[in-house]
Amino acid sequence: MVYMFIAGTAVSMFHLFLSPAVNEDDIRPEEWTITAEQMLKECKEAEDIKVKNNGRVLELKNSLGDAVRYEPYRTLIRKRVNSKGHMPMLQHVKRVKFRLEDHHVIFDVIGLNGKKYRAAFPIYHSG
């Protein structure tokens, strides 16, 4: 039993050493994926979508009438609902730009390390 515990722990430790190191200024790939999937879901369900503050803010109105905002805050992108709360979505962000183009929301991000990211979400409703 003790041997199995030690062997299992050793495998976990090897995984940590063999995993590629993530620079602390990098946007973590799993955070990018989760943020993009959440924004896609919000865009699908939105009844109205607006880009505000020169492309720095994306505001969506959902079927419940809630105003959902994605906005920069320090070095992250946060989500707020009805101007309340603060849910960090994506860390290590230097710059964010939203724009509406050809029935899509285009989401451009530059990480603290200068790496560029982009996602596009279709707009299903027009307000």
UniProtKB/TrEMBL annotation:
Domain of life of the organism encoding this protein: Bacteria
Pfam families recorded: ComGF (PF15980)
NCBIfam families (UniProt xref): pilin_ComGF
Protein name: DNA transport protein ComGF
UniProt lineage: Bacteria, Bacillati, Bacillota, Bacilli, Bacillales
